[in-house]
Structures are given as structure tokens and as C-alpha cells.
Amino acid sequence: VHQSKLDFFCKLGYGKQDICKVLENLGQEALEDDVLKELIRMGSKPQALESQAQPSPLKLVARGSCSTTPASKWLGEDKSDSSDHFRPIVIIGSNVAMSHGNKEVFSCWGIQLAVDWFRERGHTYIKVFVPLWRKEPSRQDSPIADQHILEELEKQSILVYTPSRKVKGKRVVCYDDRYIVKVAYEKDGVIVSNDHYRDLQNENPEWKWFIEQRLLMYSFVSNRFMPPDDPLGRHGPTLNNFLSKKPVLPEPKWQPCPYGKKCTYGNKCKFYHPERPHQAQLSVADELRAKIKVPLSLGKQEEQHNHLP
């Protein structure tokens, strides 16, 4: 009897110690209802209820670290989506620096301005290519300004030096333009330069299309990096769509017809007629014929009804 009652109340979730105490007080032949009342009076609760009543312990998360809550996972996914939304950026460092230095000084500050402009937009993949010999001290024939910026960008894994070496006192430099265009083509990114690379367009037809469609030109206005709002011309995409992997197409805007109600082109007219938004664009002659046919058809129906017995 003791074992059967012990098993019964254990299945209900009560602890063995509490059940044994109640059975000792009430006796082994006590009714199940009396044992249950005594357990409740003692304050004993089933283990399932205790686990529900106890709140889950809060986890302390260090400031700046990522928590494992679902909300943080969703935020992380949103961040990855936003970073994947923009195209990779490949900057021709020599072209940008010489443009900022008015073609007289290799101005590293111009490279920093271009990098900051793309960073503010949200681009995560930004690479700047500069010849390796620009690490050398400044000379009169090739002056360099703010050379420490190159070291800072190299530490941030943004600046990449194109290889070069000296053979018998002469510097051997690789054709860095081919090096840069190849990287931009493989990454499906955007080339930031004012050069047209006509020699490379003739080498490879795929590069020809890529350079024509993915070359972003720019200007410096009072130490401000300014690319055009229409990189591919007036009828091309906007700058936002040009730098995005998934461009947003604008809604078509219908231009109203200059002739208005006097237009006689009908359904052949390519302009918008606000006076008939939900009607088929018929010609004026067809509209007049339609209006005349309606009363004639009504009169014939009335005559038929009158002749019927």
C-alpha cells in the first residue's frame, strides 16, 4: 500500500520525502484525498509547477558583445543583408591621389576622403591599390603628401600595394591597372577612377563591357569627394542604383497628352489622358460612333417590345 501511494504521488510530481512525511503522520491507510490535502497544506508543489513558477535566470552579457536572443540574430541578419546590398569598391589610389593633388602632388588625403565617403554609405568591402614604391620617401620628381595615411589604411586592411622590385638599380613595376581591373571584375564591384582603360578594353571583350558599365568617375570640390549623380549619363541609373547590387527601379511616370481632349490619336496615343482613366483610349470618331449606336439600339428594342403580343 505504501509503495502504491508513493508511486501515485510521485507521478503527480511530488517529492518522495514530502510523501513519506505525510504518510508517517496520517498513517499508511490514509485516503488519497487526505494525503493530497496534507501535501498542499505543507506547501509542497509538483516539480512541473515549480519549474514554471521559477523565472529563468538572466544571463549577464558583457557590454559590446552579442547576445544569443532571437532578436539579436534577426538584427545580425539585417546587418549582413544591408552590407551585401552594396557593391564592392575598388579605388585606383594613384589616380585619386594625383587628382586631389592637382596632378602635381601624390596627396594621400584624397584617398582618405574617398574611403570615408564610401564608408558613410555603408560599403564594407573597400580596397585601395597603390604601387609599392610609394612607400619610399618623398622625392622632388614625385612628391608625396600625408604619407602616414597609407600606413593607417594598410593596418585597416583597406590599402593593398601592387608588387614592384628593383633589377640592377632599375625599378620593375607591374601593370597595376590590369591587376586592379581583374580584382574588380572577379568581385563584381565598381572601379573608382577617371581613367578609361582603353588598352584593357581592347584586350578582353568581357572587361570592355565591365569597364563601360562599372567605372565611377569623380571630382574633388573644396576637399570634398563628389561622384556624379548619373554615372552612366542622363538616361542611365542613379548613383544609388549604380552602387547597389539590387537596384530599385523607378515607377513609370505618364506624361499628359499636350493636345488634351482634342487628341485624335485614340489608342495609338502614347501620352496619358486624365479625362478617361478607366476607359479604352478610342479615337474621337470611334467615341462618337459609340454614342450614336447606343440610342439607336435602345429605340429598336422598344419597337420590338411594342410589336410583341
UniProtKB/TrEMBL annotation:
A zinc finger (C3H1-type) spans 251-276. Keywords: Endonuclease, Hydrolase, Magnesium, Metal-binding, Nuclease, Zinc, Zinc-finger. The keyword Hydrolase applies. It comes from the Eukaryota. GO terms for molecular function: hydrolase activity; mRNA binding; RNA endonuclease activity; zinc ion binding. Residues 251-276 form the C3H1-type domain. One of its GO terms (cellular component) is cytoplasmic ribonucleoprotein granule. Its cofactor is Mg(2+). PANTHER family: N4BP1-RELATED, RIBONUCLEASE ZC3H12D-RELATED. Belongs to the ZC3H12 family. This is ZC12D ribonuclease. It comes from Podargus strigoides (Tawny frogmouth).
